[in-house]
Amino acid sequence: MKFLDVIQSASSNLWRNKGRTILTIIAIFIGAFTISLTSGVNSGVNSYIDQQLREAGSKELLAIKSESLSNGMTISQSKPKEYSSEDGADGTESYLTDEDIQDIKQLANIEKVEPFQQSSPDYIQGDTDKKYLVSTVSKSDVTIDLEAGREVTGNSTDYEIALAPEYVKSLGYSSPKDALGKIVTLAVTIQATGEQELIKAKVVGVRNVSLTQQGKSIISTALSNRMVEISESGMPESMKHHYAILTARMKKDLSTKQVTAIKSQLSDMGYAAQTVEDEMGMIRQIVNAITGVLTLFAAIALLAASFGIVNTLYMSVQDRTREIGLMKAMGMSGGKVFLTFSVEALLIGFWGGLLGIGGAAAAGHFINQVAVDTFLNGLTGFELIQFSLPSMAAVILIIMLIAFLAGTLPANRAARLDPITALRYE
Prior knowledge:
This protein has about 425 residues and is an alpha+beta fold. Helices cover about 50% and strands about 15% of the residues.
């Protein structure tokens, strides 16, 4: 008997008792549906977190600040650092300078160090008379997730801005696309005199909503430098070039041990350093824990379903005892009998898993639509539930494996039946 004949025979035998088979498949469907849905949620949330991490900075980037500016805390500390008069009465001694940049550059596995300039213009004004408070950050070595347009330039002399999505309507633009190419006005105060100077900038992009830099607009390096220049004009040299945060780019493909060593060196030098993954890792852990618990419940459902498979096939063996004896008397080997019942178990797992994944995909599409219109409204680019062919194929294969293992007991019983005894069975 060819394997194709075995599959056809197993499929035909499987539906002799439709009610029993359908109930067993439904039990597997429940487990497959739950696992697929929770796996989709995990993939969707982690994909969005990864997207935010790419926007906040690559895994090679370190955000470095003075320990006294990190709310008195470092990553490894469990209590606040005590105040010291050396921190400076006005706090300027706590900020980082060009000397700190040079010191950090000397560390092994550090390729580049530059200040992270988070400028604070007084306001931004678009096509209306209204002026709005705005927070901006300078363009850095990261990819920005955009809803429309392009990223700001990093090395030219152009004054460009990628608006945060919250500002599009407020500045008088009908849509993100409508904002592209428009000129906005930024006001910067000269700290030494209190006077304001206005700068014109071109809108080249509109950002998607971001968890890591929510509400911040990205400005070109040239515009950032000009704003800093205006803000610091007239100030003593000793008060210029102070930075709250530095960004350091490490070499690629460093091990976790090497990254930890860099953080430890920086801590010894009086700096607090974090990777972007450190900052977002807690969210990822929470999501993984929740979906892990839900997956455990689904696994329990599959375990219960496996007992249903055992029962279904045991009953099938009992119903077909004389038939099995006749087949063995005609020369069918015990291995062929075992294979036939094992294929039946695999088919139960396959149909239950396939229907469960199909149901989860349909439910996921509906849930995504509801989520976008309700509690995820405004989080552009966030697809709560995502499915991929490899993950769906893996779920089906795992369920078929569970079904196969559950079917080995009744299949083995059928294979070991004595043909004479089986033919006498009433």
